[in-house]
């Protein structure tokens, strides 16, 4: 496998499912190729140049699938962090009413009710 470069791009949040599915499909295709290659290993005569080349191909394809799965995991991590942070913003924390404040409020309401009405 040649040199790797990191790239960054954005997709609409509504298209994230499709992008993740595309990446997973790509990794699974590599794994299917690995399975096919494994089925051609000459186990009765393992010490051959053909097997050596086959193992190198298998190793590279597994590495490629691993890189894709790592990308998927990183994207999912970012997405889950985004969702958690957006929930924190959408759901402000409510401070529980302290008992003293509640008692004071009840007392003020009662005082208000007890006030004489001037007509």
Number of helices: 3
Low-confidence stretches: none
What portion of the residues fall into strands of 2 or more residues? under 5%
> N-to-C SSE series?
HHH
Number of domains: 1
Overall average pLDDT: 87
**Strand tally:** 0
The largest sheet is:
none
How far apart are the termini?
A: 93 Å
Oligomer state equals single chain
What share of the residues lie within helices? 55-70%
Structural class: mainly alpha
Shape: rod-shaped
Q: How big is the Rg?
A: 32 Å
Summary keywords:
119 residues, mainly alpha, 3 helices
Structure description:
The protein has 119 residues and is an all-alpha fold. The chain has one domain (13-114). Helices cover 68% and strands 0% of the residues. It has 3 helices and no strands. It has helices at residues 16-38, 49-90, 99-114. The N and C termini lie far apart (93 Å). The mean pLDDT is 87.
What is shown here, in short?
Helix content is 68%, strand content 0%. The chain contains 3 helices and no strands. The mean pLDDT is 87.
Itemize the secondary structure elements and their pairings.
Blueprint: H1 16-38, H2 49-90, H3 99-114
Helix pairs in contact: 1-2
């Amino acid at each position: 496998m040649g040199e790797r470069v990191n790239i960054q791009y954005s997709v609409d949040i509504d298209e994230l499912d499709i992008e993740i599915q595309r990446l997973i499909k790509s990794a699974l295709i590599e794994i299917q190729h690995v399975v096919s290659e494994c089925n051609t290993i000459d186990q009765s005569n393992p010490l051959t140049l053909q097997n050596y080349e086959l193992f190198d191909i298998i190793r590279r394809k597994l590495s490629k699938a691993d890189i894709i799965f790592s990308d998927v995991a990183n994207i999912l991590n970012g997405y889950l962090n985004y969702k958690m942070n957006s929930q924190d913003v959408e759901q402000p924390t409510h401070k529980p009413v302290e008992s003293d404040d509640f008692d004071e409020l009840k007392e003020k309401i009662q005082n208000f009710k007890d006030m004489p009405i001037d007509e």
